[in-house]
Here is the input.
Amino acid sequence: ITAAADAWARGAAGLPKPWQPQKPVLPVEGMRNVLITSALPYVNNVPHLGNIIGCVLSADTFARYCRLRNWNTLYVCGTDEYGTATETKAVEEGLTPQEICNKYNAIHADIYRWFDISFDYFGRTTTPYQTTIAQDIFQRLLARGFLLQDTVEQLQCENCQRFLADRFVEGTCPFCSYEEARGDQCDKCGKLINAVELKNPQCKLCRGIPVVKPTQHLFLDLPKLEERLEPWLEQSWATGDWTANARYITRSWIRDGLKPRCITRDLKWGTPVPLDGFHDKVFYVWFDAPIGYLSITANYTDQWERWWKNPQQ
Here is the structure.
């Protein structure tokens, strides 16, 4: 309290000079370097006040605080643009997925500018860097034996002549009988669903009745990581600032045993899978989208690895 009173008495002249980072903002030896991201907002809607509060406002507040502390701060964000939600919106509006992304990325950027959100860079995930970095991570996983291939039973619409991704299927929830459950989860009871488990499934595009057919997919072999993950989690729980909910969910996954996780989809709109036999598939959006933080930083600066692969700073 005494120090605060002294600083107040000295006035603004006694404050340290504001730090003016170079452009682009890069880590500086000897300084506190802070990289901030917001959860990437999905591109298929117009953001409203709830999105602002839930997605970008807290990170913006923290970024402003860091700059006031004269910490060397980079704050990046951007729209998440691949996946079935974009394809669904494109069908609704009679546009291509790329046109939908261009339209709503501009709307998002304008709204955040209006709210004066202090991004150093606001990008998007449909860029060449996204493809390059995602495919490189995939190749590293493949080379290290962390991927496996398996046959999956999937719904196919013979009328549309395509396998139906999760959001292109609706039906009755097998758990609570809600009649408008999606092919990935039920919005009424909240349970995760495999599309083939739906009762009375329908194709959202043509309202035809799909049939179950086998298709090949690639999976992250998560059980291989369990031995290395558990001690890391114990250390991170002890030293980090995890919420009670995050701890509970993570512990339940570990307790029940990690399962292989499918990372490919039978879609056209997404990052292509660079592997023979899978060129007609793309990466599942939850494999692809988190890599957007890296690729958006790469679009901001070609020295992006100094932020993302630099634990000493």
